[in-house]
## 1
Amino acid sequence: MEPEFMADDRVELSPGLELRNNDVVLAKIKATGETLLRRFYRRGPEGKTIRLENRNPLYAPKEHDISEFEFIYPVVSLTRLPRRFRQIKQLGVRTPVGMPGKLAGLKTGLQNDVKC
């Protein structure tokens, strides 16, 4: 099964947007500090149980009480680098100034902790 998200994908979050079932979200669990990019579903009589599902069936869904999250932000857009630029970056080739996306400067604070 093809992954929904790939390494080096960029997501835009909207913290103020209402969360709805089937939204893709970035969520951080307080106890473990684990940051996940998953599909969001509310469960339970008052919607206080949150289920995060991965499209890949090899990974089990995770269910937590809403109070166990540091944050849950919906993803509003995803940008994927063209295959050629991903390959250049993987090879460690230095990119010239002005190359689309300025590949050398695309790092973010969450890049290393997000699990897809």
## 2
Amino acid sequence: MEHLVKFLVFWFASYGAANIIVYSRLFQPFRYWIEFSDINNGIARTNKVAVFLSKLVNCILCSGFWVGVVFSLMFPISGNLLIDGALASAASWITYLLISDKMNGK
């Protein structure tokens, strides 16, 4: 039972953190800053790191994976960072699919 509770906490915490990074107004200026080099002119960044980070903060699967890796350092589920990252990514995606229509008012 203890493992189930730990997994469910990991699941919902991963989804919550990934959802905040990708969709919240709190991170909107950060996402915009990463995506555009000059906020006043709206010029898109072209270096590889900025493009990678832009994709990372706009994708629930990508953010879910890295959130899972970070959370795995705090309370490991499987003992493997990559497996925990994959579990968090899957948890974020499945939860998003289940509630995305409700979030969008459908």
